[in-house]
Design a protein that fits this description.
It contains 2 helices and no strands. The protein is mostly helical. It has one domain. The termini are far apart.
């Protein structure tokens, strides 16, 4: 029985570990997404609007 448990343990993450990893990844990515959507994109848009015309 221990051999089977050892094989299953080495097979990869369990479904619970996968869910925890997804939740943790979203929690870490959410501040960056908000920063990009509320600060970086509007500032870039302003720079593009006021850039001198080419050629």
């Amino acid at each position: 029985m221990e051999a089977v448990a050892g094989l299953l343990a080495g097979a990869g993450p369990t479904p619970d570990e996968r869910v925890r990893h997804r939740v943790r990844t979203r929690q870490r990515a959410l501040p960056d997404i908000i920063l990009g959507s509320m600060i970086v994109l509007p500032v870039r848009l302003v720079f593009c609007l006021f850039r001198p015309p080419r050629g």
